[in-house]
Design goal:
single chain; about 325 residues; mainly beta; Rieske Iron-sulfur Protein; Alpha-D-Glucose-1,6-Bisphosphate, Chain A, domain 4; 2 domains; elongated; binds FE2/S2 (inorganic) cluster
Length: about 325
Amino acid sequence: MTTGQWWIVALSEQLAPGKVLAAVCNGQQLALFRNSEGEAFALEDRCPHRRVPLSPGQVRPGGLQCPYHGWTFDGASGRCTDIPNLRRDEKIPPAAVAAYPVAELNGFIHVLTGEGEGEAAPAAALPGAAYRASGREYTGTAVVGIGFGHYLDLMLDGTQCLLSFPGVVITDFFMGDPRLDGGYLVLDRGAVWAGKGVGPAFVRDHPLLVRTRVPLAGGDITAELLDADEQPLVTVLIGASANLRGTTSLAWRGFAHERAAGAPFGWRLRRLAGRAPFTVAQAIDARAVALVEAAPSRERGGAAARTIPITPAITAAAGCNGARAQQETFP
Ligand code: FES
């Protein structure tokens, strides 16, 4: 049984064949790479030989080659497969780096961290499995200056600090309390078209809703702009995970649905012009964040308790011996 957690760590298009990408997921520094056959891998971003980062290295037929002395590590097992200039009587030592299971779905690269056997997860269990884009997609990545747990909380308490829909004003009106739905807290807020006033006095009469779906475990967040019939106008999936020093890594994809009934002319024009129907904040206004009252996020069982712990070296997940390798020394 796998007890680890799948995280969205990058967009598929960020990792072309033969490329390496440094990423941080759940506090783990990773070297993601894709071989010439198109398969993606994730290794701990630290060579077991002299501890330098592997992510500036090169993709070779045997795996990822360290930029310092050229040792190569297999992407699936993490084991060292090649050392340049070995003498005939020398063997490759049992060196290995931690390797993490990788899966791709809906244009996202997912990595499994945490204790477990490293079995492949069914696609339905991957975060964002329900995301189905149609038409033009708008994508991006960022590292934002707010801790992961706070980011999730703020997506419930102060969505407008993290996300916007051009032409739409997100109001302060919550449609009741967050409701639990399959391991996610779902909260609706009233919203109005910009320039149409602040909205009605009664929340149920708002012409638009912003629905946020925030996980209790993991980091896949869905935000949607809905019309009065609760039909989606815009869908955004954001993969979030803890980066280093109190920051959060984000990777997102989103799109505008075909439906635009009731949308103002300007909003439809924006869409026809190919302008993004949403913006994920990359520079977060700390002063605005400080003013947001913690309210719906209390439902997350206590913000501090819900902060996903930084997992120590993950080795069992990939069935490799990375942790042991870190304690060994090699010439
Ligand atoms: S530091 Fe990586 S091969 Fe020496």
